User: What shape does this take?
Amino acid sequence: MKLLHASLCLISLLLILPSIFAASSSEDFDFFYFVQQWPGSYCDTQRSCCFPTSGKPAADFGIHGLWPNYKDGTYPSNCDNTKPFDSSSISDLISSMQKSWPTLACPSGSGETFWEHEWEKHGTCSESVIDQYEYFQTALNLKQRTDLLGALTKAGINPDGKSYSIESIRDSIKESTGFTPWIQCNTDESGNSQLYQVYLCVARSGTGFIECPVFPRGKCGEEINFPSF
Ligand code: 5GP
Ligand code: 5GP
Assistant: This one.
């Protein structure tokens, strides 16, 4: 009888254990989207934009965010409100962030509000792998390792307000980074579809790019504008 009781206890424990682990890893994720935005396309919409207090950003793609994602296309958000954004812990990264992760929202700001939003919504969901310092450092490293504008201009695709095939845009970025990007469009004031954001996928560890397990939804036209900035 005792033996039966002991085995029943063991079996129940074995049944319960996986759900305990599942609960503690509920903030886990499969990969990141590393998202960069073209400032010209953020600014020429109906909503317009404001330059950051540090001045007009370079005419280059800027970081929007590093977003943990699940391979079924869903994603976690706002995972830990006990870890607020702490700019003093990333003080040596701030000048690089001003250059590579500029804010274009109105009213003009230093960028802190944008970085705080990205950390709280997305960064806190990657804490099983990287802490706050590493989150921002990882994004900056990934930016340094991709030259989207260089890839495009090398293929004759320039921010000159002309239109280019989405295929040529995708191919030139694939050629340069080795990985297939996902292109997100928005529309300018006249309603033209234009190159807004470029998504690349990053391994869970944050160490390098991977082919995307899943692409976001949405569609651009076959030909899209590349506005100046
Ligand atoms: P939108 O609807 O403008 O594409 O996205 C609005 C916001 O939702 C994004 O800035 C981002 O914070 C979040 N978001 C949209 N799509 C994804 C996605 O596929 N993965 C993750 N992690 N966040 C997303
Ligand atoms: P997400 O779309 O990532 O959830 O939210 C972006 C938030 O950051 C919005 O509240 C938006 O107003 C703010 N934000 C500040 N600066 C920028 C910027 O340069 N680009 C984008 N896309 N959002 C910005």
Remarks:
- The chain has seven helices and seven strands.
- Residues 31-146+179-219 form a domain with the Ribonuclease Rh; Chain A fold (CATH 3.90.730.10).
